[in-house]
Amino acid sequence: MIKCVLLDDELPMLGYLQALCREFDDVEVVKSYNNPLKFLEDVDNLDFDTCILDINMPGINGLELATRLEGKAIIFSTAYKEYAAEAFDLDAVDYVRKPYQIERLEKAFGKAQIWLSNKIHTNPVYVELNTNFGKSRLNTNDIAYIVVAENDRRDKEIWFKGGQTLLAKNITFDDILERFPQGQFCKINRKTVIALHAVKHYTIQTVSCEIVPLKTPRQFKLSEQYREQFMSLLPG
Predict the structure, then answer these.
(1) For an engineered disulfide with 219, which of 29, 99, 133, 208 has Cβ 3.0 to 4.6 Å away?
(2) Does the predicted TM-score (pTM) go above 0.90?
(3) What is the pLDDT of residues 214-234, one digit of tens each?
(4) At 213, is the pLDDT very low, low, confident or very high (cuts 50, 70, 90)?
(5) CA distances, 44 to each of 40, 69, 183, 228 (Å)
(6) Residues whose CB is less than 8 angstroms from the CB of residue 132 and which lie 6 or more positions away in sequence, other chains included
């Protein structure tokens, strides 16, 4: 799910953009602004990952504003094509011309989703756990899934995408999910937590993830009580 903020100082154009965004099931409009200075006042309290940003606005233009939105997927919008080169110099994911068209927005949101996915995978998030080797510092991007240990259900067996395993000692799934990056791991049955970036295939009953040394993906049961949450967290 893309969490998007919209900025356009022209109210009719902003209203039209809001209406178009409502057509996308995988896009949530967190908030809309026609005043960039008001947006700057609120930005630290907003939960969003993507911004559709008009370039021509009073007070502060979109190009300058984008430099203050590090880590966000930026989609610039304008009626003037001469800003395109400068927009892409700021590492924007896309640049759309007004008037907005739903097909063009769909393409832009697709690029934003890819950008956000790549950002997750390239920025390591480390978690320190008590393991069978002592204190271990784990890169969560390398983890494929976690299961209850066979010998002691208080322990959890962590499987990495490269096929390695590690035993996390005396820890609950609730504690793991609280300490791991939010929205990137999901419990799919009572005995399994899976990394969403490792999902290879899924149905309403099963989830499969790929482990490099194995010839076929590892398949797990997707329990009904966890199905809705799993589906809601899947990107795209």
Answers:
(1) 208
(2) no
(3) 777 899 999 999 999 998 887
(4) confident
(5) 8, 10, 20, 30
(6) 166, 167, 169
Going by C-alpha positions, the residue among 82, 8, 3 that lies closest to residue 50 is: 3
| 3-state secondary structure at position 183 | coil
pLDDT for 131-188, tens place per residue? Answer: 999 999 999 988 999 999 999 999 999 999 888 999 999 999 999 999 998 888 999 9
Provide the pairing of β-strand 134-139 with 126-131.
antiparallel
73-78/50-54 β-pairing: parallel
Q: What amino acid occupies position 139? A: N
How is residue 149 written in tokens? Answer: 């240990």
Give phi and psi for 124, each to the nearest 5.
-70, 140
CATH topology of domain 126-233: OB fold (Dihydrolipoamide Acetyltransferase, E2P) (2.40.50)
User: 2-122, what's its fold?
Assistant: Rossmann fold (3.40.50)
State how far the Cα of 229 lies from the Cα of 61, in Å rounded to an integer. Answer: 39
